[in-house]
Amino acid sequence: MNFQGLQKIENADFYLDVAIKRMKKRIGEFRQEGMRGGQINKSKAIELTKIESVEKELRDLLHTILISFPSIDSLPEFYRELMSITLEIGLIKKSLGSIKWCIEKNRELLEKYRRNIRNSTEITRINQYRREFFGRLSSTIKQIKKNLEYLEFARKEMKNYPAIKTGLPTVAIAGFPNVGKSTLLSRLTPAKPKIANYAFTTQGINIGYAEIKDQKIQFMDIPGTLARFEKQNMIERVATLALKYVADAVIYVFDPTETYPVEKQIELYELTKKSRKPVIIYLSKTDVAEKDKIEFFKNKYKAITNTEDLKKEIENLEF
Ligand SMILES: Nc1nc2c(ncn2[C@@H]2O[C@H](COP(=O)(O)OP(=O)(O)OP(=O)(O)O)[C@@H](O)[C@H]2O)c(=O)[nH]1
Ligand SMILES: [Mg+2]
Asked: Which helix H or strand E contains 101, and what residues bound it?
């Protein structure tokens, strides 16, 4: 799923301007085509074309928003949940509903003013109806100004969502902050995530792909989480969602140099195991860690210390 390509949602004035410009172009062509009939009939024909054309152009523009915006109810669960923690789904639905309302309202207005113009017997009245129609049309679109703004806000937020391929065998790389998850991703796949010596370097989800025994595997380097599920920050909540909804298996990274205390790391490991997904344990920083720490994890947790063995473990997973 990729939200990068979502089309920008413009403001109410923009759509109105575009619709009017397109209408003027249409009217130019219309006049050139030549018209028959008396003055009043010519005037009716022109003003009817104007109001019909603005309504149609505006409807097309608004309709494009409706069809290009992702349908929330048919999104994969991960994205739906992600949306519910980063945005107000109710407000998105209401805003999309308001666009439908605007389209309907403009159609009703068009019908009404069409009748008025057709039944007019004076040119001044015809012009007056056209002006009135434009006034009311711009008022309906202005009424949904805030809704368009919210949809654009949502689009920008969604653009930052990770582009995860749901349906591909996926292994999440989890653990405390700063333990070396992103470093591991960069060793397993060609991905080049940001790596730095501080907690919460990874703020989103880094994705990498590797072919392991003829199978394409998606690796998800998720932000570091602390063993505290009740008061997680947004970054941790996103990581938890990815683990829950997308991962088929987990590589849990222990850091024997104890950037965070071993007991805390074990606590999070125990919580991770509760997901009932296969968990492979990887020990990072063995080049600098104390020997007895490394032995502890190797003996007690059968920790793997190199990527080749890790890949073999992944080969044996059943997706
Ligand atoms: N010596 C050594 N340093 C490592 C190793 N793996 C990671 N590091 C260092 O540990 C620090 C954190 O590494 P990251 O890969 O950014 O850790 P992370 O788990 O992704 O951290 P967050 O994104 O903050 O959760 C960096 O300074 C890395 O260079 C390793 O195997 N050996
Ligand atoms: Mg990281």
From this structure: helix 89-118
Q: Is residue 1 part of a domain?
A: no
pTM of the predicted protein model: 0.86
Mapped onto helix, strand or coil, the DSSP state of residue 277 is coil
249 strand-pairing partners: 171
pLDDT (tens digit per residue) in 29-65: 777 666 666 889 999 999 999 999 999 999 999 999 9
- Please give the distance, rounded to the nearest whole angstrom, from the Cα atom of residue 198 to the centre of ligand 1: 8
176, 183, 187, 305: which to mutate for ligand 1, most atoms within 8 A of CB? 183
> Which CATH number is 268's domain given?
3.40.50.300
Residue 18, domain CATH: 1.20.120.1190
Q: How far is the CA of 85 from the centre of ligand 1 (A)?
A: 28
Distance of CA 290 to the CA centre of its chain: 44
Pocket test for ligand 1, best of 192, 195, 226 (most atoms within 8 A of CB): 195
> What one-character-per-residue DSSP string does 114-146 give?
HHHHHT--SHHHHHHHHHHHHHHHHHHHHHTHH
User: Is 95's pLDDT higher than 90?
Assistant: yes
Q: How far apart are CA 219 and CA 276, in angstroms?
A: 18
Strand, helix or coil for residue 160: coil
Q: In this structure, what are the phi and psi dihedrals at residue 290, rounded to the nearest 5 degrees? A: -70, 145
Contact indicator for 121, 40 with CB cutoff of 8 Å: yes
Closest atom of ligand 1 to CA, residue 183: 15
Q: How many domains does the chain have?
A: 2
Same domain, 107 and 183: no
- Domain span at residue 303 reads 170-315
230 Cα: distance to centroid of ligand 1 (angstroms): 26
Domain co-membership, 117 together with 224? no
The answer on 128 and 52 residing in a single domain is yes
